[in-house]
């Protein structure tokens, strides 16, 4: 049985998009391969856990620089795994530049196949982007295969363009079991509708950070009449700033962090799913796919090079408008609010698109096929 070593920045139960996909990869392959995982511990101290019947090595982090973790023990543990576990294949989740430097130094055996799972380009950290240029070239040169989450991201990434002959598209997926609707969720969704007295309910989901574009949704809200109700979930470094921007706008409610039951109920009760992300830091849009799975038409911005406009198709599953154009965004919300038939049409088409492209069954098949072909 071949052996696979997965390298992720963090790992379950740490909550994050990359971490969820790393776990999805492990689960997709666990019946056919012997596997181990190495990641950072989000707390101090080294830790070995068994998750989904797979051994996970978590290296204690002593400091973070530009959101990148550093560990005193990482090099030693990775060396040990390479020499004792002797993986045939390594799946490395990028961006994780400090670990990439260690991996390139220690990966001396050319017989070990390297799959680079390219989640997104480094964009926000301008200095790191320049500093790691040489490393990126070396990493992509060493890679046997590179996973991209959408054709849009290949076209929009100078790095993936430079190695497009190695790229394989594996769209992100949603877990259908996690999306299951219970009677409790249905009851809560009906309550939310009743509370809002036939208003058009809009929901936006995500961390309060710049690229999520919530400030533009808030600006668009100011152009709408009081027949709208907009829920914005989550928290983040911009929470206080967003609250100030929305002050006096009774249409907007910030929910803070909420559990899965409340989140599903909000989406189920909603008429429109708002996804106002503005840069290709939003590489794919898993929350967008989840909203579409619940048959909600979406309103998005055009984001060159992002998978968002690959997940949601303009004029088919939702409405796409010019990036950061709040007038157009508000107008799109008004169009959907005033046309129940169009909402239903886009909603059904959205669910169909997710079911045909972005479920865990397709993801598992795509990952397995890629590994078999190495």
> Helical segment tally?
16
- Rounded to the nearest angstrom, the distance between the terminal CA atoms is 15 Å
The number of E-state strands comes to 16
Work out the count of structural domains: 2
- Overall geometry comes to elongated
Q: Can you tell me the CATH architecture of the largest domain?
A: 3-Layer(aba) Sandwich
Beta-strand percentage range: 15-25%
Mind describing the biggest β-sheet? 8 strands, mixed
Level-1 CATH class name of the largest domain: Alpha Beta
**Protein structure class:** alpha/beta
Alpha-carbon Rg, integer: 21 Å
Fourth-tier CATH superfamily name of the largest domain: Glycogen Phosphorylase B
Helix amount: 40-55%
Reading side by side through the largest sheet, how are the strands ordered?
3-4-2-1-7-8-9-10
**The CATH topology of the largest domain:** Rossmann fold
The poorly predicted ranges are none
Query: What's the overall average pLDDT, rounded?
Result: 93
Short descriptors:
Rossmann fold, 8-stranded mixed beta sheet, elongated, 2 domains, 16 helices, single chain, 6-stranded parallel beta sheet, 374 residues, 41% helix, alpha/beta
